Amino acid sequence: MKTYTLTLDDLGNIETQNVETIFAQANGFMGVRASLPIQESDSLPGTFINGFYETHPIIYGENAYGYAKNHETMVKCFDLRTLECFVNDEALSVLTERDLKLNLMTGILSETYLYETNSGQQIKLELESFASHFNRTAYAQKIKITALNFSGEVHVKKEAKLLLPNASKAFDPRVREASVNLQKQGNQYTTPNSKLSLYTKFDQIDQTFKLNQTQSFEFEQINQISKENQFETVSYERLKAEQIKIFDTFWSVSDIEIDGDETLQKGVRVNLYHLFNSAGRDGKTNFGAKGLTGEGYEGHYFWDTEMYLLPFFTHTQPEIAKSLLTYRLNILPQAKQRAKELGFAGALYAWRTQSGHETSAYYPAGTAQVHINADIAYALELYEKITGDIIFIQKAKAIIYETARFWISYGFMSKRGFEIHEVTGPDEYTALVNNNYYTNKMAQNNLLYAVRLAHTFKENQEEAKIWQLAADQMYFGYDETSKITKQDDSFLDKEVWDFAHTPKENYPLLLHYHPMKIYKHQVLKQADTILAHMLFAEDKAQVARDFDFYEPLTTHDSSLSRAIHGVVASRLGRTQQAYDFFADSATMDLSDMQGNASHGIHAANMGGTWLGLIYGFAGLHIDNGELKIENHLPKQIKALRFNILYQGKLQSFELKNEKN
Amino acid sequence: MKTYTLTLDDLGNIETQNVETIFAQANGFMGVRASLPIQESDSLPGTFINGFYETHPIIYGENAYGYAKNHETMVKCFDLRTLECFVNDEALSVLTERDLKLNLMTGILSETYLYETNSGQQIKLELESFASHFNRTAYAQKIKITALNFSGEVHVKKEAKLLLPNASKAFDPRVREASVNLQKQGNQYTTPNSKLSLYTKFDQIDQTFKLNQTQSFEFEQINQISKENQFETVSYERLKAEQIKIFDTFWSVSDIEIDGDETLQKGVRVNLYHLFNSAGRDGKTNFGAKGLTGEGYEGHYFWDTEMYLLPFFTHTQPEIAKSLLTYRLNILPQAKQRAKELGFAGALYAWRTQSGHETSAYYPAGTAQVHINADIAYALELYEKITGDIIFIQKAKAIIYETARFWISYGFMSKRGFEIHEVTGPDEYTALVNNNYYTNKMAQNNLLYAVRLAHTFKENQEEAKIWQLAADQMYFGYDETSKITKQDDSFLDKEVWDFAHTPKENYPLLLHYHPMKIYKHQVLKQADTILAHMLFAEDKAQVARDFDFYEPLTTHDSSLSRAIHGVVASRLGRTQQAYDFFADSATMDLSDMQGNASHGIHAANMGGTWLGLIYGFAGLHIDNGELKIENHLPKQIKALRFNILYQGKLQSFELKNEKN
């Protein structure tokens, strides 16, 4: 059994709620935060079930036609971890020591806590737990209770608790209270509005033991939650053995070894661990922005999946990639309905959703990010390129056709070419612009892929001519004087943000400035043109000029920004700069760089770490149908080893730093 | 006593709620809808008190920094008109006839209703009523009840009723239920959140009379409402006599006589009547978009006052003009606070408000309409030009300086000139654009006026240099190829709206299309560049080109649009077209052209009618310090007579149509 352990020493911020996120366990279906075993006010316990959300009507101060109708909030449903313990009738309440060891290689968490009662009677609590990947309905725990400095009666009560609404206090647009009063009927729990049900099979203990000093008592609990009222009984030991096997298989393909920088090595493995844990596996669920580890962004699925997570999954865990893409195929009807509602042809995917319906309550930074259509198309095309799985593409091709139809309808042909107006690109610090470079580039790619599929499957030939024409004539803004790619028609005309007079504590800007103030300036939240260049650009000199222009204007207020800049810096041979971006990205949640790891992991950034290593330092690319690498290792990294599944075959790569 | 009567025959839509709006009575402090005397479900009774609003926190689906915090909704507080009547213990309930006569010359409404009980006992109700302009706390009624076809006991009960919340059903962003449970303590009524109080002195009757057939019974009621607990007792007859005098004085200056077109004559007089009635007189209140006649737009004050109403008041009722401008001076502190909150210098007036605080819950069509600053400055400058009242200007000049400071801070100097980005112009069918022509033109005027005042009052000399520079360098977009003034940087690049495939019932567009769809097209809600041309343009050929380009793209979905197009058409010598716009504008509410007269009058359009006649047909302008006119009468109008108070002196004008 391989061991690679994460401990509290690895964390930059060991506040309870951060620890609960980083050590959370999940299996794609359920996620359980590593909350304290004895209830405490600063602890934020939670169990999340992928795709289990409650709806609430969105209230608008001023409503308008076509606005998204409902919030969908992933429910924080149960506390599976808290126990009550009384020593000689005195409650155990004071935490004096804690020690967490997460074995990333096995997906098993070991915890040790020293607690005492007010009068000083001490108990050692030892927990072993995991969210089973073998039986995804099961959260398994083994609990050992030791009387440290007393002999007497120990009463233990542990049963799953329904979590009730708890109004969040601070204003932060990135979190919404996952508050819901689930309706209970027997072992069935139902959301009042969305009418989604969960069934449970909970273990429970409520017992008194006589323990002499240093004596222990041990018990196991398997708490099960399922979308169907069917449960399989599997022993703790069996679940544990299977967990170890599954993780072993995972790491045998997906592990990345970094020689020379233990901090980065740990950061990368934590990230891959969480990616493996929070990805939906059933084709009906996806990957929330915070995985299944916290309530940030309400559990919504964004473009993050396609542009930040799917490269990793596609290259190493294609079955998971297929499952995440299948989700998009399953919500295509909702996307078609949405396009129609807005008066356009084809399909428009929701910017943020679980059900497939648009839930963005601020369309300028939501629905207007129509690039999500092309992001999905891009990910599907990448999946085809890497896996060669044409059977799935045949199933999913409607996504490509319908998104292509949307572009034709949303854009228009002018004397300048095919233009796409009133969109918001990835950089949410400008909104509702015309001809966003990233959007147009991605739409072009979407259209060309549609053309290719139309030819492959010999269908939609007439439309394909229009798609080809729009792609060929796609308009891209370029400033001939400065030789800079225009982020959009108006970006270069804007006033430059006054960075010199912006105090540090005013970042992220979105929490301290009105959108009107932000939008009117040259200031970026995250990679936009630079992301497009990472995906498509061939002219290095152009990329360098754009990088030098846009990066200093970028606040990296979004966790999606640094990784992309790292990849592009690598390709430009700016190895040290690439390393700095990568280091930030690799340890973002361990160091709590964004200050909100308590809301859950930054999943997209975790996928971005993989991009930084593999696309960046290793320069992975396809050349004449073959995988090729290019060595951009920074001096801190002595060697880099990783595997890629290409066309069904596992290929292993090793890069060494020649400077060492 | 002069008579000029409006009857039901003059209305295009005699549905109850429309009638209640058109025949509403108001005195600047209170407004009383002409609701049915016997309660009926389709009647919408209401008394509105200017500046009496309740606040509710605005709920945002996605909140952000600097968003407006509270709704302010003008309270529909009392029903002063409903009575209950029983004939031999049987309720009077069936309305069989009604006849309304509003004497516009006296501000007195006469109504006759025939009602019967289920068994057919008939009563004639005759009402005379007015909202007193002599004692603005008083709503006076004289009521006569006649037994038509029976003898017996008639029980009459009439007391002011508190109106309770009544959730509105249909979705319409232009209305919000004025629902509030006022807290009552003795004769004091207080809004629970905003803590504003009203005091009342209500008359009440609850009595039984014996009437023989054809016999009558008559009584008077004076219901009083005040912001202070002080009431003066004045007799009905005295109030009536004073009302007649006051209206006589009003019309002696403000009347406009149109020979040859009785429909227009009536439309114009109805409009002027309502303007006189709903204007706040105390410097603490202003003029709601619907006056005091309905709950549309929550009673909010917009730029409508400055750009559509103040020309009329300034030229004929300068005391009212001063009072409306004094309101802006009184809320200057809130405007300074708002600018600061958004990170800008100077003052930014709220787009919609009563208290002075921003209440727009959709900033792209609200706060982003920063042109309101310059609109207020324009109105103040016009007031100075027409009245010469430099004493008031000395008091109010801070408005001009603070708004000038805002422009310097909101805009910036680029190589193209002084640019103003991220604004929404009057045309709300494009939003968040750069260098909106109207905004830049108005800001320039604002800056130049600030420079002039700085010189006059010998102050702010250093700042004045910057103001002058920004004004001199103000950037205006112009398309050299088409010779069209650019509405904004991107307008000419947009796709043209598909008017041919837009069914009639899909207007106004805002109720049938998502903002993203509307904004991305060349389509206008109302005059924008054309409004700027009305105010400033000298090059007729340019105006004509722009008119021919923009007017066909304009839906006139806003009631503020037609009048302005009428004025400009007049000046271009397009007399017939001007007449068509004017005719629409003059009778807009009488004909219920916008389909929502039930929400209240379209006050701005009513002011627009005056613009159409005086700026348009009569071509009024100042030439070398003298008032000049220019005859643009259309063939339908034989003669036009009106007065202007210029520099304190009344000047009378008469234009005759030489073609007749």
TrEMBL record, chains A, B:
* Active site (record annotation): 428 (proton donor)
Gene Ontology terms describing biological process: carbohydrate metabolic process
Which keywords does the record carry?
Glycosyltransferase, Hydrolase, Transferase
Positions of substrate binding: 303-304, 525-526
Provide a Gene Ontology MF annotation, just one.
glycosyltransferase activity
User: InterPro entries from the xrefs?
Assistant: 6-hairpin_glycosidase_sf, 6hp_glycosidase-like_sf, Gal_mutarotase_sf_dom, GH65_N, Glyco_hydro_65_M, Glyco_hydro_65_N, Malt_Pase/Glycosyl_Hdrlase
Q: Glycoside hydrolase family 65 N-terminal domain location, by residue?
A: 17-207
Q: Which residues form the Glycoside hydrolase family 65 central catalytic domain?
A: 269-610
Q: Which domain of life is it from?
A: Bacteria
Q: Tell me its family.
A: Belongs to the glycosyl hydrolase 65 family.
What's the protein name? Glycoside hydrolase family 65 protein
Q: Which organism is it from?
A: Lactococcus protaetiae
Q: What is the lineage of its organism?
A: Bacteria, Bacillati, Bacillota, Bacilli, Lactobacillales
